[in-house]
Amino acid sequence: MIVEHGDGKAIVAELCAVAKEFDAKRYYDLLKQAQKYSVNVFPNIWKKLVENHAVQETQKGDGIFYLKENYYSDEFGLSTEPVGSLSFLMSD
Q: What is the pTM of this model?
């Protein structure tokens, strides 16, 4: 799963748009770049993320998934709950 963090966000955006004008070389270059922003998750965590609608497929049926940006924190990484909603609690 690709994390929308740093350059990963631009890579995900481009992978989502690639179907409009498919360029195989560019597609595989993007997948190679995405490896730096990819994480593995245990099945129980995957299930929770799917239940929370935290993961999306870049293109329907391609099997390449990304984590929505608000489920990743610079401080502690991947979260099964949105991290944006917690920030107001920690701002004091």
A: 0.81
